Amino acid sequence: MDKQRYLQRTQDGLWLTEDEKENLKLSYRVRDVLFEEQSPFQHVMVLDSYDFGPMLVLDGVVQTTSVDGHIYNEMLAHMPLTLHPAPRRVLIIGGGDCGVAKEAAKYDVVETIDLVEIDEAVVRACRKHMPEVSGGEHPDPRIRHHYSDGVEFVKGRQGEYDVIIVDSSDPVGPAEQLFSSAFYRDLHAALDEGGLMVCQSQSPIFHRDVMLRTWERIGSLFPHVRMYTAVVPTYPGGLWSFTLGSKRPLPAPEEIRFDKEAFYVNENVLRASFALPAFLEKLIRERGGK
Asked: 57 is in which domain, residue-wise?
């Protein structure tokens, strides 16, 4: 199987080595391979790692883990759903680990959660082998799975959603379209007149060009744009960025209210995540930050 391309056995055990950049490799010691499948789209594994527990690995790259995946999923889900006054219709593009959908289901006001993931194998693997992230094999009935291309799914939709969350992998291969100007235009059209969107916008340290390009493209469409950050240990550099685009004015950070049960997020964390490091503030200001 293809796991031999990504896993190496040494005298001290089995290792996954992720090639992040030409000069950076990340290695994880692995207990066991819980799931492996070559889907029509990518190579999918769930590995039981020593320090991070079960982890989802796509084409040799770690996507989320059972130990720190909640940080990313909670920050991506709760920020837009807290800022929007009545998020009844939610669209999640990507997010096959189901973690963002699990968090969105904590809101009673939410009526429908459309989860658009191109690869059914990812959802199947995570629901069975990563219940801490996915919520298990019996999801909330408001979650509707659509196994299709998110770029195509959103085309032609007019004002159907209150909140759109883009939970994409790195902008390589098929996922590259999820960072394009055309895709953001379609997202803008698919939101109702008071809607907002959020996407992960990569590392401010290692992927600065992608982050700034995302900021500029969203800012060209939405009158209200904000960036916030969180530290996710398994992501390169730890520090990770998220970019919000909203058709309605956003409340000031100190006005944020949050009362859901979460492992990482609380009211103070949501408020403080808008306080950007000085270098990041400067970068955005130079790009015409709003």
From this structure: 3-62
